């Protein structure tokens, strides 16, 4: 019995493309990456909102769209002052605001103050804001609850 050498060799299986580059896009890794990015954005989006909790006064007024580009000064219930989530003592507020608004064309500041803060303290903060040269000061409030 003879076994031929031809049958024992490996025969190279010819690919479908004959050495040409494959023209198909594998979509599965693309879908995986998009889903992971979607999950990341869904988790991080709630964390991007303004973070200091204050109990704002409720009044009827025109609504103001405060986005991330606006400078927001917040006074919480413990009389702590924050400028865009950065805690600042009252004595340093004027120089810090001058530094924040040094390169800005719009000298507009929005203030959020807890309703439990005494009026006198809010006026002190507003005086420091005026000393820093802020042209416009807007007060942020919440709309009142409607009785049904």
CATH fold node name of the domain at 71-139: Nucleotidyltransferase, domain 5
Shape: elongated
CATH class descriptor of the domain at 71-139: Alpha Beta
Pairing-aware structural class of the strands and helices? Answer: alpha/beta
By DSSP, the count of extended strands is 5
Q: Could you tell me the strand content as a percent range? A: 5-15%
- The string of secondary-structure elements, in order, is HHEEEHEHE
Overview of the molecule:
There is one protein chain. The chain has 148 residues and is α/β, with parallel strands linked by helices. It has a domain at 71-139: Nucleotidyltransferase, domain 5. 29% of the residues lie in helices and 14% in strands. It has four helices and five strands; from the N terminus they run H-H-E-E-E-H-E-H-E. It has helices at residues 5-8, 27-44, 93-100, 119-131; strands at 71-75, 81-83, 86-88, 108-113, 136-139. The termini are far apart. 7% of the residues are buried. The model has no long low-confidence stretch (mean pLDDT 77). It is a single-pass type II membrane protein. It comes from Syntrophus aciditrophicus (strain SB).
